[in-house]
């Protein structure tokens, strides 16, 4: 997998899980955790309209996040997340959510990068080809439709059972992440080191989703969580840098050989 493909994959995983976990944690804040986002805002504002918008947008976040993570339907999810990303950026700026608008700016930049990778099928949609997204490169890289549908079904089941709060929500969401991870391993053209990034995604996602349980037994849980994210980012940058150096060295050696 080249640098561009790996970067696009990591961005899809980051965006998908951030939206998925943010939505789930707002629906079940006592059980499901996230990486970023407030979970008790309606209790502060005490407005029926705000509560309706809050939970409706949470369900929307879960849906678009799971679509992006599925890979099979990530082009669809990326399109659907555009209005949500813009709305959250504007809302957090006007409500003065501290540093949250800065994070949302980064998420918007990531989203733009991910959308650019799918520019050809999106262009064909504008030209009237309604099936273009199904022929996108991303679904072709991860063709295991059954795994994607299984993970999406588990997410929908989690939403359906959200009124019965309990640890069964953690189990369902964790199984969905497991299915997503297994689907990621179906791609066979990774470098050997890239499999470690898939494992790190699984570890970070499981820790974040089940953070409300883990924090009762692990002191300074939040530092462990963000420490692992920082470690993954550092390894990713190192992988990209080494790959570029090797590629440049290879091009120079081939150039000398043919001259």
TrEMBL record:
Keywords: Membrane, Transmembrane, Transmembrane helix. The keyword DNA-binding does not apply. The chain crosses the membrane at residues 9-29, 49-70, 77-95, 101-117, 147-165, 195-215, 221-242. The keyword Membrane applies. This is DoxX protein.
